[in-house]
Amino acid sequence: MAPEEYDCIVIGAGIQGSFTAYHLAKNKKKTLLLEQFILPHSRGSSHGQTRIIRKAYAENFYASMMGESCELWTLLEKEAGVTLYRRTGLLVMGPENGKDFQLIKSTIQSNRVPAVVLQRHEFSQHIPNVNLTHGDAAFVETDAGILYADRAVRAAQMVFQGHGGVIKDRQKVVQIEPGSMVTVTTGSGVYRAKSLVITAGPWASRVLPLTGLQLPLKVVRINVCYWKEKVPGSYSVTNRFPCFIQIQPKEAEHDIYGLPSNEYPGLMKLCYHMGSETDPDERDRQTDRSDVDILSRYISRCFPGLVPEPAVVESCLYTVTPDHHFVLDRHPTYSNIVIGAGFSVEGQRIAESRRHQFFRSSPRPRQVYARTSNKPGPYIQTG
Q: Region Disordered: start and end of each range (predicted)?
């Protein structure tokens, strides 16, 4: 049987792959989206009900990309006919004179992002049930909020199919043959296309070597923890409690973030922004709970209205690069293969902006969004 032929094949049906495929199909490209697991699934990085969407970043280019991303999320909402975003505001706390906190403030100011500075003497009036750390300052990014993650992936896949796109799950890629037409072989079929986009998430290090490429990607397991409110509703989205980020907490090296109780009634989501290295195919063998201990200590100190032991613990996988910024570029040898990897740290919230760059990159040579430090150049090993 002859291989099925397409204009473009996208490997990986997470948030990046689904949005890339959606925009390729929307722009009249015959597109195939391949996924190794049965859809929907919770094995990778794109599942879960909620993410924070914001412009408060230490890096200016993230804030700049978010402007485009928010506009495109709104367009997807209209096309899919579903709500994907809820405005809650984002409380940012951190050492007043700390480098990261000052960089975020500078980014907010230079991009004219709406924000309100909270003076220490009025903090508890505006943000009840939270103890501001001595020496910390705080502000609220007023237009930030919650992105409904699972719903967003489903919406992208739905409109992709509405534009004639094809999704095939249970398609683990076993071989990639580059050329003017790229041939992709899975356990279930053979497919050919003029261009290929690889957005394999935690499995990128399994797929990229099939093209002769290696990147120093690390997969870590994140414990996604939900903490019970002592007084129901005290940290609820319906009571207008904001999302938050704690920069440089006293308890640990990395940031802590949280979302108001929403997906589980009476339970607030708080997570540590890093985890323990793991194998994506054996994630449950990783039993390290040091991040949960960090969160328990932080909650005891700063969130007195929460029980400092998690009521629910789920898991998610992050894929990170050495500098914790994503890689988005062409394959160094094959210009019709585009690589996207390492998105987990700043993943879902700017997916719409990045998928636009994937689309621009994949059909024909064009310049793509990339900083010098997150282009593959310094990382790539071929062979």
A: 355-383
